[in-house]
Amino acid sequence: MKKFISIHNNKIFYFISIILLIMIFFKTSFISNFNNVLKSNENERITKLYGYCKNESIGYLRYLKKKYNIKSNPKIINYVHTPPNKWAIYDVTAQNTDSTRLIILNYPGNEINLKLSYYKKKIYELNDPYFYSIISNLIGSLQIQNSIKENIDITFYLKDRSNNFQKLKTINAKKDKNTNDYIINQTFDDFKIDELRFFLEIDGLDEKSKVTIKLRNKYNLENFKIIDQYQNCYFVE
Amino acid sequence: MNEIIGIIYLFLIFCLFGLSPLNIFHSRVGIFYSLRKSNFFYNLIINLNILLLFSLSPFKLIEYSIPIIIILIFFFIKNYFLLFKNFKSHISNTIFFFLVFFILSVQVASELNLGWDAKWFWYIKSLYYSDNQTFSELSNYVYNDYHPHFGSFMWSFFREVSINQHEYAGRLFYVFFYISGIFFITHDIFKSNIKNNTLFLLIIFITQKYLYFSGLQEILIFTTLIFMSKFFYYFINDRSSIYLFFILICANLLIWVKAEGVAYALISLAAINFISMLNLKQRLLINISFLFIIFFKILIYKFFQIKVNDQPYYFEYIINLDFETLFYKVKNILIYLTYYSFKNIILMCVPIIITLNYKKIFQNEYLKLITLIFLMNIIFIFSAYIFRDMEVVFSLKTTIDRIIFSSSGFYLVLIINEFKNFFSRYV
User: Fold this and answer.
1) What is the H or E stretch that residue B42 is in?
2) Which residues of A touch B103 (CB under 8 A)?
3) To the nearest 10°, the Cα dihedral for B95, B96, B101, B106?
4) What is the pLDDT of residues B302-316, one digit of tens each?
């Protein structure tokens, strides 16, 4: 082995180097990247990546910044939980957030419907509770598939930092005859959610069911003057 | 095509930071005579420290960015113009280096995606310098507390001197710095250039990921630790104090790049004190100098009224930790550390190498040093999560992969040396 390699030493290493270079080439998808850089400009690539009025909606934010020459830092409310997106239009000379104007992205309407994930017997989890506690005022109601009970007991829990369930509150929810939803009307302000996990124990729900929670949106567009709109993205004051 | 030309132009600008003006010291004064053959990497570290001083100055970026480049070009022409005929000997190195830079830069230009923390604050901090604000104004930014600024400063500096001034232009320096670090530790392993280049490409292939260039600062910590570990290696072999100086200025970069850089700087300082060949004068000098750079940072932070640390570590929380919480935290740290160590091949190799060579630990100074660093690093990871007043699983899920990656820069030289020993039996 040693003898063979030493005879063909440099040629072998040149060959291995070229193979490695080709592997790096493919690992990074060089051809499609190169093509992408040649065919579309930076702005187009950013819009393609972050969406115009979907996900982070950077395309719409950049459009607003340019059209309205925004020199303040209006508050951005995005109803899709994405990484922060104020970086796209941030103005360092305006230190504080402009509270008079709002940019609302991916607006879902006055109600936010979310499916709860089944955790274990009778217990369901609301994923991303901290994010939802910011964009909604209260937990309006609960829709439970195939539930015929008139009243149910719902207990709210947080999982503390030692991984123990910490009981917050138990309420009795009555079924609304028109909508078949169990009315809760519980504000998030009563619970200190932070970055903890949030659970609901639904009494009498022995089998795994499809449970939807309905949250009331904190921002009602009727209370604002719309300056600009594209699909469900808005610039309001 | 404009952006492709911009990438090539930036490569030349970055190279200036490696090529000049150290030659002034090297050829005229000769104080760096004991450095290994290539000055490129030493220039880079010195020039970054000079940039760090500029970043703290009251001058606006626009006032000094172009003059710095002009000065570097002047020295480059002055020092290298007559030496171009010797360039032939470096041609294969340069071609490989440039090709890797170009491939990775095109990926950054195409993908563009910024990491979560980059969107949250690193990029915004860079905007301060781009919008002609100085360190003084940056200190008003709420996320400036305990998140050092130097990585963001480099982002805006190199964006400023680029052709298109696109956001990603500044991040291309992170690519360049990373490639330089890998090149530095592989360029003198074998006598043959092509073997070194093969090793260089192999390490790039194993360690490269787009995420590292998404504006997160871990790649800067990782690369600086790579430089430091090689300087440790040179110091142990050559015993020249100049390498201690370079370890010190690398530590200076660490503490200005990211909060945990202070921990890595302190780990390095503790490890240096265990080097048996260190004489009393060197020991005193390095300890005092280390303390000086840390106090200098604290002084600057105090002057600009920036919180030195705002991480969720509270004395009250630490003393009230109960056994149940402690057990839950340790259990999860172990699970996540093991899982992510398997995902990061570098960290996984270290205990294997130490176990295989355990008899040599007290004879081989470098192995002893890295073993100590490894142990201190593991202790640091455990304490960082145990004493942090935050939900541990959430913390681990979002940060431990990056902590493992950044600290693995310490071990790459050891792994390469072990690889060389193994390899030399066959080739």
Assistant:
1) helix B40-56
2) 24-25, 28, 30
3) 80
4) 898 887 776 777 777
